[in-house]
UniProtKB/TrEMBL annotation, chain A:
Keyword list, A-Z: Electron transport, Transport
Family per record: Belongs to the ETF beta-subunit/FixA family.
Designated name of the protein: Electron transfer flavoprotein subunit beta/FixA family protein
Limits of the Electron transfer flavoprotein alpha/beta-subunit N-terminal domain: 21-217
Taxonomic source organism: Halorientalis pallida
Highest taxon of source: Archaea
GO MF term set: electron transfer activity
UniProt cross-references to InterPro entries, sorted A to Z: ETF_a/b_N, ETF_b, ETF_beta_N, Rossmann-like_a/b/a_fold
PANTHER family (UniProt xref): ELECTRON TRANSFER FLAVOPROTEIN BETA-SUBUNIT, ELECTRON TRANSFER FLAVOPROTEIN SUBUNIT BETA
UniProtKB/TrEMBL annotation, chain B:
GO molecular function term, any single one: flavin adenine dinucleotide binding
Family: Belongs to the ETF alpha-subunit/FixB family.
Signal peptide coordinates: none
Protein's name in the database: Electron transfer flavoprotein subunit alpha/FixB family protein
GO biological process entries: fatty acid beta-oxidation using acyl-CoA dehydrogenase
SUPFAM superfamilies according to UniProt: Adenine nucleotide alpha hydrolases-like (SSF52402), DHS-like NAD/FAD-binding domain (SSF52467)
Recorded superkingdom: Archaea
InterPro entries: DHS-like_NAD/FAD-binding_dom, ETF_a/b_N, ETF_a/FixB, ETF_alpha_N, ETF_asu_C, Rossmann-like_a/b/a_fold
Pfam families: ETF, ETF_alpha
Length: 264, 323
């Protein structure tokens, strides 16, 4: 059995930042493994530890810089990695959900996995749509926002819980092959061990161009264009207490006593 | 061709509020395109739901009677057929957990550009969608350079439609291919039970990612004890297993309405805000001046929680734990 996990390197923004052109200035960005993908990797690795002959392959769309993130997933137990990138992708004006799903679909075609796990969303763009779009493209069944997974490999069924709003979970049987988008909290992602980090250095990480996966640059053309990026105007009008911690704590304490929520 | 088709949502026999928000967003967009607003009601007691969403500004309601609960394979087929029949310009779906489960598939099936989690829509010779990025730190505008598009709408961003409507309700005879239905909903489970009901508390002290590690949680617990408050948290704390699920405030946790809500080290992501914006007074303790929590806070301290919280514990005569 083969599990393909999509892994994205996401940009995180520092508290204080500036905007340059149509994005946040590079010096305020830090790159890391997407939080939701971390849970997806862990879920796949746990399945591979519990069942015989399960291979976990990660798929990433990203520049060379992303290899640090990919090695992290390998250190946590994925067996090998595919990274799709070339000059055309680098220069695409807007890599939309459709294009990402198209690239990942080509990887799926090559790898022929039995199960695809993605994060529910990426922490930077938060489209929350790539996994289900991919499923529809490759003709897999799917389930979005999965926070419990019990795989019946022989029965060809994934028994999942989907995390709905308001503390309600939907119990669903999903026929495989399937794409499941994994919600944070489904498991406890492990830290990479030193041994894992060492082993990751020698695990295969294949870099594929559009041409390698049988696509041409047309797939990158988007009907969408990002025309602006700006800091939203603060709607806040909070009364901010000033001073050192003792002073501000004193003011908050006085406020709570006045409100009558705290005695003493 | 200038019409808007908006999809409503229900669960376990009840229409969800987001359906009435869809009416507002859909009417607003249809006013800009100069078209009609069509609603789709799929599965369950469709006539009951149809009468509930029949508000002012709705031009037509299409019902698809098939099954009881949401199933994405049914929704996907029904919406695609309805879209082909009505030929609207724009398709709107809620960016709810179920919306996320079918809207991308419908957009792919209909070859429509998809923009998710919209917080604003403007149509002037083409659609411009406003959405957030980087956890709400910035907004972006996305121009759709095609005549048609599918957009998902952030819940609780548009007001619920009011006023009775007089739209015709028509049963749409969708041809659902059962062999395409490859997932089955077998039940529902309520989570987040337990000994504490944070939705009943008058005074909540809520902890978020800013607490950094599990070993620091006792600091907040000491403050809770010293002030006789109730402890709650944002999602990452529960995801990490540092507090049980019944403490979680937000979209997937509990909705709380205390007199006072102190958010400590909580940035105020939209999913969290959905659970606590009804608090009477909101106090933020946060080092990040750009955190979205400041949009809601009535009072605040822009400082390090590890400085402020011990001082606060001492104010109330509590003992500061060694963390």
């Amino acid at each position: 059995m083969k599990i393909l996990v999509t892994v994205k390197e996401v940009a995180e923004v520092e508290d204080e930042f500036e905007i340059s052109g149509d994005d946040i200035a590079e010096q305020y960005l830090e790159y890391d493994l997407n939080e939701w993908d971390d849970y997806a990797v862990e879920e796949a690795v746990q399945i591979s530890e519990e069942a015989e002959d399960v291979e976990v392959v990660t798929a990433t769309i990203g520049p060379e810089r992303a290899e640090e993130t990919i090695r992290m997933a390998l250190a946590k137990g994925a067996d090998r990695a595919v990274r799709v990138w070339d000059d055309d992708i680098e220069s695409a004006s807007y890599l939309d959900v459709e294009a990402k799903a198209e690239l990942l679909a080509a990887v799926v075609e090559e790898e022929d996995p039995d199960l695809v796990l993605t994060g529910v969303q990426a922490g930077d763009e938060s489209n929350g749509a790539t996994g289900v779009t991919l499923a529809e493209k490759i003709g897999f069944e799917w389930a979005a926002v999965v926070n419990q997974l019990d795989l019946d490999i022989e029965g060809g069924v994934a028994n999942v819980h989907r995390e709905l709003e308001g503390g309600v979970e939907e119990l669903t049987e999903v026929e495989s092959p399937a794409v499941l988008t994994i919600q944070s909290g489904i498991n406890e992602p492990r830290y990479a061990s030193l041994r894992g980090i060492r082993q990751a250095q020698s695990k295969p990480l294949d870099v594929q161009t559009l041409d390698d996966i049988g696509l041409d640059a047309d797939v990158l053309e988007s009907p969408l264009a990002q025309t602006d990026l700006y800091e939203p105007e603060s709607e806040g009008d909070a009364t901010v207490w000033n001073g050192d911690a003792e002073e501000t704590a004193g003011q908050l304490a006085e406020f709570l006593r006045d409100k009558g929520v705290v005695e003493g | 061709m200038s019409d808007v088709l908006a999809i409503t949502e229900h669960r376990r026999g009840e229409l969800r509020d987001v359906s009435l928000e869809m009416v507002t967003a859909g009417r607003d967009l249809a006013d800009q395109t100069g078209g009609d607003l069509h609603l789709a009601v799929i599965s369950g007691d469709v006539d009951d739901y149809a009468s509930q969403v029949n508000r002012e500004g709705v031009d037509a309601i299409h019902t698809v009677e098939y099954g009881e609960e949401f199933n994405h394979d049914v929704y996907t087929q029904a919406i695609e057929e309805l879209y082909a029949e009505l030929d609207p310009q724009y398709l709107l779906a809620p960016n709810s957990v179920n919306g996320m489960d079918y809207a991308p598939a419908v957009a792919e099936g209909l070859s429509l550009p998809l923009v998710t989690d919209a917080v604003d829509l403007a149509e002037d010779d083409g659609l411009t969608v406003t959405r957030e990025q980087y956890g709400g730190k910035v907004e972006t505008t996305i121009d759709v350079e095609e005549a048609h598009a599918a957009v998902t709408i952030r819940p609780a961003e548009w007001p619920q439609a009011e006023g009775d409507g007089d739209a015709a309700v028509e049963a749409f005879d969708a041809d659902i291919d059962e062999s395409e239905i490859q997932s089955t909903v077998t039940g529902f489970e309520e989570v987040a039970g337990g000994d504490v009901d944070i939705s009943e508390a008058d005074f909540l002290i809520s902890v978020g990612r800013g607490i950094d590690e599990e070993a620091n949680i006792p600091l907040i617990e000491a403050l809770v004890e010293a002030t006789d408050a109730t402890l709650s948290s944002s999602r990452p704390i529960v995801d990490n297993g540092w507090l049980p699920a019944n403490r979680q405030v937000g979209q997937s946790g509990k909705v709380v309405t205390p007199d006072v809500y102190i958010a400590i080290g909580i940035s105020g992501a939209v999913q969290h805000v959905a659970g606590m914006k009804g608090a009477d007074t909101i106090v933020a303790i946060n080092t990040d001046p750009n955190a979205p929590i400041w949009d809601l806070a009535d009072y605040g301290i822009e400082d390090d929680l590890f400085e402020v919280v011990p001082a606060l514990i001492e104010e109330f005569g509590g003992e500061v734990p060694d963390v």
